[in-house]
Amino acid sequence: MLCKNPAVQEKVAKEVREATEGKQITNFAEFAASVDEEALEKMNYLHAAITETLDSIQLCPWMKFIWGDDAEEYKPERWLNEDGMFRQRSPFKFTAFQAGPRLCLGKEFAYRQMKIFSAVLIGCFVFKLRDEKKTVNYRTMINLRIDGGLHVCALHR
């Protein structure tokens, strides 16, 4: 999704730089270690971009009813309040981690892992699709796969 939305990718990269206080990245392991709890808490836009991506891969027929006419548009801002802070939505509305007594116990851990991994990658690289005109299709399987793979170029930031 970030390859198809370069402005979002740049906004996430800017937020990562600000949250990590512009630390120079000379070693990936050291940079990953610098993405501590305090830095992660500042990454609201990254959290929103991840959540929007999780929501977009599970599109269902009633999405417009739940999210409005722009439901099929990749829009991380829908997850932020007017102050730019991430706002939780009802788990019955956003079902990536289920809801009620079946709410995923690992939800916060999963978000933490996704944010650290994304912050390190986006902090270090710019990602572009090798063929920006090619449609990306998901294969229906037990886990999410991209039909034909996803050919991406990673350039040093």
TrEMBL record:
One of its GO terms (molecular function) is iron ion binding. Keywords: Heme, Iron, Metal-binding, Monooxygenase, Oxidoreductase. It comes from Hevea brasiliensis. InterPro entries: Cyt_P450, Cyt_P450_sf. Belongs to the cytochrome P450 family. This is Cytochrome P450. Its cofactor is heme. Transmembrane segments: none annotated. It holds the Pfam family p450. Coiled coil: none annotated.
